[in-house]
From TrEMBL:
<feature type="domain" description="GNAT-like C-terminal">
    <location>
        <begin position="119"/>
        <end position="262"/>
    </location>
</feature>
<dbReference type="InterPro" id="IPR041644">
    <property type="entry name" value="GNAT_C"/>
</dbReference>
<dbReference type="Pfam" id="PF18082">
    <property type="entry name" value="NAT_N"/>
</dbReference>
<protein>
    <submittedName>
        <fullName>Acyltransferase domain-containing protein</fullName>
    </submittedName>
</protein>
<dbReference type="GO" id="GO:0016746">
    <property type="term" value="F:acyltransferase activity"/>
</dbReference>
<keyword id="KW-0808">Transferase</keyword>
<feature type="domain" description="N-acyltransferase N-terminal">
    <location>
        <begin position="1"/>
        <end position="117"/>
    </location>
</feature>
<dbReference type="Pfam" id="PF18164">
    <property type="entry name" value="GNAT_C"/>
</dbReference>
<dbReference type="GO" id="GO:0016491">
    <property type="term" value="F:oxidoreductase activity"/>
</dbReference>
<keyword id="KW-0012">Acyltransferase</keyword>
<keyword id="KW-0560">Oxidoreductase</keyword>
<dbReference type="InterPro" id="IPR041273">
    <property type="entry name" value="NAT_N"/>
</dbReference>
């Protein structure tokens, strides 16, 4: 697939595509990026060392993603999955522009998983087979056990019924009747139960998981809810969640990252 075709398929802003196309990119850059993409630290270092590294990263990822289409076709993976999976390029390109006021990709480590065909978006959710890095005794899971990690893409409502459809799609995609699903996210933090109504989408999604660990050092929830991490007093109060969370934080509480697991079968 040509990168021009990919850009249209994922609705990449024309200005972003034209900027990436104008970058002085070479075939050798592409070969080196492809060689390093399975090695997280080396891939990140390679991208960050380039001139206009965010724009370079956008061009590199577009080139590698376009090449991956042949692998999708060879495995019989439908184009909708390819399109939805690599739409993340557009989302993170837009995030980059909003944050740094330049077209490009700053989140190269996340998109590396897509290039390596480890992450697939199947409906509302994205999935990635991983191996646990530590035991979860309460659920008889051990370090090294394979689970399917759930990733929640930004930009759409987290409708519970859509999530269930995604879980079923994941079982079909991986040719499984049942599987252990795992996740870590601010969306799983128990504190949200004090701020949201029980029938809201976030809490219905959260109810799928058995929460077993909380890390209060992460501020991803504040970033997602308020748009950035700043002084608590400066946080906006546009939505009810923003108002409730701001008051919660002003009392000295935190909204970190929670980890959860559950078994799902057809």
């Amino acid at each position: 697939m040509k990168i021009s075709t990919l850009a249209k398929l994922i609705s990449l802003p024309l200005e972003a595509y034209e900027a990436a196309l104008a970058y002085p990119f070479t075939e050798q850059m592409k070969k080196e990026g492809k060689r390093l993409c399975t090695q997280e630290a080396l891939f990140l270092d390679y991208c960050r060392k380039q001139h206009q590294h965010r724009l370079f990263s956008l061009r590199l990822i577009l080139e590698l993603a376009a090449d991956i289409k042949d692998d999708y076709d060879a495995l019989g993976i439908e184009e909708r999955v390819y399109k939805d999976t690599f739409y993340d390029i557009t989302l993170w390109c837009q995030n980059c522009y909003a944050t740094f006021h330049e077209w490009g990709i700053d989140e190269v480590i996340w998109l590396r998983f897509h290039i390596c065909m480890e992450v697939f978006r199947l409906g509302r959710l994205a999935f990635q087979k991983i191996h646990l890095t530590k035991d979860i005794p309460a659920y008889h899971k051990k370090q090294g056990d394979e689970v399917i990690e759930i990733h929640v893409a930004q930009g759409e409502a987290l409708v519970y019924e859509d999530c269930i459809r995604s879980l079923n799609q994941a079982l079909s995609f991986y040719h499984m009747e049942g599987a252990w699903f795992w996740g870590e996210s601010w969306l799983l933090h128990p504190a949200l139960q004090k701020m949201l109504t029980k029938d809201c989408n976030i809490l219905r999604f959260q109810s799928l998981f058995h929460i077993y660990e909380i890390d209060e050092s992460c501020h991803q929830g504040e970033e997602r809810i308020f748009g950035d991490v700043m002084d608590i007093a400066d946080y906006p109060e546009t939505t009810s969640l923003q108002r409730n969370l701001k008051q919660y934080l002003l009392k000295g509480n935190t909204l970190g990252m929670a980890r959860g697991i559950f078994y799902y079968h057809r």
